[in-house]
Amino acid sequence: MSSVRAYHWVCLVGAIAFEVAGTTIMKAAQSWEMLYGPQLGIVLMLVLIGLSYYLLSLATTALPVGVAFAFWEGLGLLFITLSSVLLLGEEMTLKRFVALCAVAGGVLLVHHGTSSGDAGDGTAVNSGRC
After folding, report:
1. Per-residue pLDDT tens for 22-69?
2. In this structure, how many other beta carbons lie within 10 angstroms of the beta carbon of residue 49?
């Protein structure tokens, strides 16, 4: 994997982390309203989600859009659900667990079923650069 593609995977991981943090804060901020007012949670959520979209846009300059979006949405959903169970006290049911496993499997299937952009002879079909 080239350093350019590694950079784009790091951007994607960052996008997922900011999405999870922003969405978790959206829910947690409801209990902050009495202490800090409703604006703090909204502002933090908007900043984190905005950073998530920015990093996702950087990731898609070299990664296939379908793969990047599947990872961002699928792993985001997985980690948001885990954070809601571990940090916010929501319940993990068997049905929820099975659904999360299906989402994780779907992400892997999209990734492994998508061409990396290589033509097979070492030359890139589309480098993703402007």
Report:
1. 998 887 777 776 666 667 888 889 999 999 999 999 999 999 898 899
2. 17
DSSP lists the bridge partners of residue 118 as: 124
| Helices 3-28, 38-59: crossing angle, 10 deg rounding | 160
Share of the chain above pLDDT 90, in %: 43
Distance CA 66, CA 77 (A): 16
Residue ranges in 1-130 assigned as alpha helix (H): 3-28, 33-36, 38-59, 65-86, 94-112
Q: How far apart are CA 98 and CA 101, in angstroms?
A: 5
Residues 6+ away with beta carbon under 8 Å from 68: 12, 56, 59, 60
